[in-house]
Amino acid sequence: MEKLGKYIRPYVGYIILTMVIKLFGAVLELFIPYFMEIILDDVVPSGSKGLIFLFGGLMLICAGGCLACNIGANRMSAVSSGKITRKLRYDLFEKLERLSAGQMDRLTVPSAESRLTSDTYNVNQLLARIQRLGIRAPILLLGGVFMMLTMDPVLALVLVALLPLIGIIVYIVTKKSVPLYKDEQTVLDKVVRVLQENITGVRVIKALSKTEYEKERFNKVNDELTAIDQKAGMITAVTNPSSSLVLNLGLTLVVLIGAFRVNAGVSKSGVIIAFLQYFVMILNAMLGITRIFVMWSKGEASAHRVADVLALPEDLVPEKHDEKAHEENTVPPHIEFRHVSFSYTGVGHNLEDLSFTLGRGESLGILGETGAGKSTVLNLLMRFYDVDSGEVLIDGINVKCYSHDELREKFGVAFQNDFVMEGTIADNIRFFRDISDEGIKEAAENAQAAEFIKNREKGMMSAVAVRGNNLSGGQKQRLLISRALAGSPEILILDDSSSALDYRTDAELRKALKRGYSKTTSITVAQRISSIRGCTKILVLQDGKTIGLGTHDELMRDCEEYRIIAQTQMGTDE
Fold it and tell me: Would you say 546 and 540 are in contact if contact means Cβ atoms under 8 Å apart?
């Protein structure tokens, strides 16, 4: 919890006030049995009705004050814990947004989701529980013991002698439960992952009749989560019954010893009744303390998981640019890869010794089988990952020397597996950027999306469902290309983003791009040669290595693999 101290610190005064109110309420509650004992042992025998009403009124005032203090403090604890959790959740979300692709790969999306939801919820519950019970329970426990000692030290020592035994039980349970709750949150990540995969792929699952298989797969991780939750629950469940058993045994001894002491005239019956009331307080206080420890087990495990993400160092930090190196080449290529090698896992290269240059306004088509490294080229260009060796340069400057915002502003991107958000068509194209309605309209026309947009009842203001479920594959791709074009990018990247388009629409798209974005440098990843045939350069990759680089005609002459693909797709020997 010390790692989250900066979030608690601004509310320390408010939390202290909450606990002071709780303290005052607990003290008032402690006086109720005391006044009752006075009434039974002193006032009733005297026969004074006035004193009965006086001490009875004091009991009502204490009860009312205790109720008001508890309600007010509980509301205050909800406010402070809510504000702390809101700030924590916001910073965690912001941190997740800033993580590099490599860091997110190691963290995993399901883990990020569970830390942002269930873990922050556990922290919220811990903060609220500590404020509600952290002062009240110990005060009732210690105060109850103190009041009993003032009334009858002999009887009080019977219960006091049992408290260390309860402390040992709580310590053992807490020590064993904390690791289990950490494991539980890790297993919860698996549940979230399986659930996420099922929701995303629900259509494929139904189409391939794999519903029962997915049920079994979910049931497996769900059983794993249930087993570890039951194990943790069985351990923590020992606390309350054990504490109650010990205290009840102590109460039995108190009643027995008290009966002998009353019979011997060294104690009073009112004291025994007051002891019963204090016993209930002490029992509830002990149960409250055990609930704190149970919640602490969950909250501490979750707090560590949240803090681990917040403590991740900033990755891919911009480096200082060497001005002299830039001056040596007065007209550098717009994009250049110099002997670039890269591996996602550090075992084998996903790209090996890749080199090419691209002038401003030129176009590059990238072709290759699945896993050849096509998307990796784009990831390195946009610095989602850093190269293992070599350099990636834009305008003669290493991409490592650009700030993240400066680098991202250069690109307009339509990824292979991109997303469409719920909203309107215009919202999806604009995507929270300062782009005029005319700019959106022009981008949609160039992306060949204007036709299907016009056919919708509300045009640009037509609703788009979550993940674009009310759009066809081709409509979704044209919408994404419109988004990429709307910002008038310096570099346009189309990562297999026209695969769902028919040949006529694909051809019209390429014509529109040449006509309207002739000064934009473009990189197109495609499986169709027809989509990249007109590019200035075509890069052919195989297992992360360059097997061909040149124009269509050059590759048809010099690259056998390219020629075979062309003959297969186009039925020509050109």
Answer: yes
β-pair type (545-550, 491-495): unpaired
CA distances from 519 to 265, 413, 446, 489 (A): 105, 16, 15, 10
Task: Give the tokens for residue 65.
Answer: 């004050």
Structure tokens at 381: 């260009």
User: What contacts 348, CB < 8 A, 6 or more positions away?
Assistant: none
pLDDT at residue 571 tops 90:
no
| Phi, psi for residue 382 in degrees, rounded to 5 | -90, 5
pLDDT tens-digit map of 315-335: 888 887 665 555 555 778 999
Q: What is the pLDDT of residue 1?
A: 58
| Pair of tokens at residue 102 | 């490599």
Residue 536: Cβ within 10 Å count: 15
* Alpha carbon separation from 537 to 68, 216, 217, 371, 532 (Å, rounded): 77, 49, 46, 21, 9
Q: Please give the model's pTM, rounded to 2 decimal places.
A: 0.75
The SS3 assignment for 494 reads strand
> Whole domain around residue 474: which residue ranges?
412-488
Burial of 367 (0-12, 13-18, 19+ CB in 10 A): buried
CATH number, domain at 424?
Answer: 3.40.50.300
Has residue 480 been placed in a domain? yes
Pairwise pLDDT comparison (280 vs 402), residue with the higher score: 402
Q: Domain ends where: 285, 310, 335?
A: 310
As a whole number of angstroms, the distance between CA 147 and CA 459 comes to: 77
Residue-wise pLDDT tens digits, 481-505: 999 999 889 999 998 888 778 888 8
Q: What is the pLDDT of residue 74?
A: 92
